[in-house]
Structure formats: C-alpha cells, structure tokens
Amino acid sequence: MNIRAALYAWRDSEARAKNIESFRVFPNATLDAIVSALPRTRDELLEIKGIKEAKFNLYGKAILNVIAECISAPKEQPRDPQSFVSMNGVMNGTNGPMERPSYSISQFLDILNRELFRINARVRGEIVSVQERGNALYFTIKDTEAEAVLNVFMWTSDYHLSGVEIVPGLEVIVEGRVEIYKPSGRLSLRAQTIELVGEGALKKAYDALRKKLELEGLFAASRKRVIADFPQRIGVITSKQGAVIHDFLNNLGKFGFQVRFLDARVEGVLAVKDIYRAIARMKSEDIDALVIIRGGGSLESLQAFNNEYVVRAIAEFPKPVICAIGHDKDVPLAQLVADYAPSTPTACTTLLNSSWLSADISITTVEQSMFALYTNALQRKSMEVMKAHRYFEHAFLNIKTSLTGAMDGFLQVLPLYKRALGERRQTVMGVGEDSVRNFRRTMEQIKEKLARFSALLDAHDPMRQLRLGYSILRSTQGILRSVHSIHEGDTIGALLVDGTISAKVTRIEKHD
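^ thats the sequence. predicted structure below, dont judge the formating
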C-alpha cells in the first residue's frame, strides 16, 4: 500500500472531522519527511522536523498505526474474492479454511479513504444547494442528464481564491479527491478548485469583474508606475515547462540581469493558487520589477489571470509589474491592472533592455565623438607643433649666426681686456693695502672708546652699589623714590645683591 497516499488520506479525514484546514494537521513537507524516514517508534517520530510533543500527543499514535498497517499489509491482494470461496467459506487455496479478517468501522473507513485518495477527478455538474459553515463550504451538484448527485466539501479559503461565486443552477467543474466523512459515513468530493463551465459563463464573470475593478480605478493610467532606468534584479513568474521562459531568458540582454524565477502553473484554475502564492513570495524579494508571462490561450485557459485575488495581488505589488499574456480576444484583467502589458515575452525583454540599450548607444556615440574630437585636436596640435618647429629652427639659426659673429669679435678684443685687467689689478692691490692700514687704525680707535665706555658703565652699575651695602625698594607701582608713594600695610620688596626680601610697611616717617 502507498504510505504517502495513506498518510495524506488520514490527514484529510482528520482535518474534515475537526473542521480545520489540512495543513493545520500537518503540512505536506512534514508528511513527506515522515514517508522518507518511516519512523516506527515515538522517539523516531519526534526527531522529524515539525513534530513536537504536543503534535505527537494529538496524532502520533495514529501516524504510527498508519505506517505499521502499510508496512505489514501484503503488497498484492487478490481482487476476485471468489477465488478463495468454497462451499465451506473462505479457503486458503492449499491449507484449508482460513478466517476472514474483521475491522472496526473506523479502520474500515480509513482503508477506504486511503484507497479513494488515489483518485483525483474533475467532475462536472449543476449546483443544487450551497451552505457555508464556519471555514468550510458544503454544496451538492447533480448530473444534468441522469439521476445522480454528489456531495462536495470545500474550504472557504480555496473557494474564495477560485474567484467563482456559486449559486443554485450554475454549472461548474470541481476538482478534488473523494473521501468518506467518518462521523456520518457520508461520501463527499473534497474539492480543491472550482470553475465555471462554458465560454458564455466565463465571459459573463469576466465582464462583471472587469466592470467592478474598473469602477474602483484599478485600471487607471494614473496608477501605472514606470520601471526605473537600468533595472537589474528581475522577478519572473511562469511555468518552467514550455518555451516561454526560454524565449524570455534568450532575449534578455547581457547587461548583468539577476533573475529570480518562481515556477508556477499558468493555465486553468489550478494556476490561481500557484500564481497568487508566487506573487506573495516575490514581495519579500529585492527586485526592481516583476514579470508574469505565459503563451496565448482561450478565455477558459486564462481563468487564473482573470481571478480577482490574482488581479488585486498584482495591483498591490510594491514594484512595477510587467504582464505578458497571449490572448485571442479579451485582454486578461491581470494585464489591464499591470503597469506594462506587452503581448509577448520578447516584448517584455525589450522593455527591460531599453534603458540599457539606450545607454549603450549613447556610450558608443560619446566614444565616437570623443575619438573624433581627439583626432581633430591632435591634428591641430600637430600642425601647431610643426609651425613652431619651423619658427624655432629659423630663430636658432639666426641666434647661431649672431653668436658666431660675437665670438669672433670677442676673440679679437680679448688681449686688450687682459692687458686692461692687469693694470686694474695693480691699482686694486695698492688700494687694498691702504684699506687694510686704515681699517687697523680705525679698529684701534674703536677699542680705546669701548674701554672708556666699559669703565663708565661699571661706575654706574646698580649691582656695584648693592655690593657696597645698598638695596633697591620696590612696590606694586615700581621703584620707591619717596615715602609718599607707599602706605602703611603695603607690601614692599627689597632687592639685595644676593636675593630679594618682602616686607609689610608698619610705620612711615616723613622728613620735612
């Protein structure tokens, strides 16, 4: 038995019983980790990321039981029960009668749900009744050509994301897996998506939503944002299958673009969740622009791009959005709300490349202009240099001729200069001897005067008087020359030959 299918069926049944979304029981990643590890004990199960003590207390035993049942179950079981039946009951073929296994109702329904979970179907029918309870939607569809009805269960989050408003009498296609709700034993189709049937119904829903969003101003030109020059970080949402992504990447210029790619379905109602979640994830990316692309298609195949949730997600995206979706007739609402709506992926790349190409052309033009200006300037300077060379060559020739004539004249008068210099030398020598004698006489006179001045200065030196026992009194006003310059209580200083003394005036006697 397929353990993964068994765990997914158990989880959906558990979520249905508790009226909660399946991921609140366990997300897909946790179930896939369990399938990879195949834990057999409590400790092994607790080692798996996403399973803590609280989760184990709620679901641990049930998970271990599912794994044990799948591992212990025979890989192949006979499909025809008659091959084991005889007049005496169920037989073992060669070893005689063997006892039939018995199950509790809960076990039996778990086995049925695991088997039913393998079936993923698209079912078409007419809405009979609709009831919304809590976070789940319950409705019934009937066969328009036969007496057959099917109960359908759908989470309201999936229903709202589908963008379809169902009412009795509407023909729809629902896609999902069948399960039996254990508390009531009721079989239901657990729908993941719902879509309208027929081009007319789709066109009617398209026109109504377009009018609604247009009245809100979501398509107004004033809301359109301009992609900044030289974008580098580009977010891309499309399917990794097909030629669209390859055409886009092949035509994107070699300007150092950094592409953040998210794979998503881009056709049918199943694409709504993928595109919506991809846009939400791109909000956290550091990008300059978001690109959403796919090839052409009919109104039916482009339902995801006419979904209200997807359109509003594009309108609220924080960066400019380029949406290129090929279409036969009606423009998808995603393109109407986007900032740019080129017709092809190649046209998207033209938008992204334009500022870079313009800059490249401008740089090339500037390079050519600079080279031309440099060439012209070089030619002009070369001509100026040649002209200057001819001028200096002529000038130096004239200078050389003049110098040659001057040299010849100098050589002729040189002997005369030598004789005149000799005579001048004799005169200078005589003058020099007289100058020395006069200088010495002057120095002797100065020496005698300095000796007289030194004796005079020594006689009037204040320190000489101090050495003789005199002193100099000072106050804050300067040297004291009269008792009238001092008052009782003032501080005076006495300068002696070997230091100073400070004293306070206590009495003053004045002489007439």
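The chain is about 50% helix and 20% strand.
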